[in-house]
Sequence to fold (266 residues):
Amino acid sequence: MSSHERPITVPDFQAARSKGVRLTVLTAYDYTMARLFDAAGVDALLVGDSLGMVVQGHSTALPVTLDQMVYHTRCVARGASRALVIADLPFMTYHLGTTQALASAGRLLQEGGAHAVKLEGGERSAEMIAAITRVDIPVMGHIGLTPQSVHRLGGFRVQRNAEQLLADARAVEQAGAFALVIECVPSEVSKRITESLQIPTIGIGAGPHCDGQVLVGQDMLGMFPDLHPRFVKRFAEVGKLIRESAEAFCREVREGTFPAAEHSFR
Ligand code: KIV
Fold:
């Protein structure tokens, strides 16, 4: 939707599929990155609970709280003038039942300024998705490798049970979700899922047949130079650039060449 001038809405996002327009989604956790990605024409900014790993340095997303998600969503929403802002419901903020799910989703819209929420799980989450969409909060589903289930799954692994994945995808759509993230699933399976749904599918490690793609911003920018997941293409080596810039700063301060006259007041 690169030529789209006004802010992108949930119906625009859904309509992209029937128009054959591929959707672009990147994660963002702060104002600076949100502004840059928004200006680049990214269709949706996902405030993912991956911030537990990317921003907070945990080994999983499980420690992330709803208060933290509200805070980061607010920062991202301030930086987004065109992109749809979608916020993750973190672990244990929708698992206790529909009342909890509604209250949590409501906070991400009311306090965070999100336009939609994302939650993990297929058949098992259908009841929560239905309850949230019933009060007109748009929901994006998420199946395949669902990071909040990392301990049950035994790690961050490719998910290959095609029949279960298809059943999950259909359950998410029937519950009223407006889009579906498919994570780490073989390409042939995500192709079957995409063909069997009406709502757009957004892949991450799910091959080229989805209606759109999502990546973690810091991954695609090469800000974790030691991490090489197969499904991440590094579109830049920003990590190297940051390190070299910081090294140059240290060198110039130590040499006494920064600040120079043009950086100083008379
Ligand atoms: O939390 C996240 O960043 C996500 C994406 C990887 C889809 O769920």
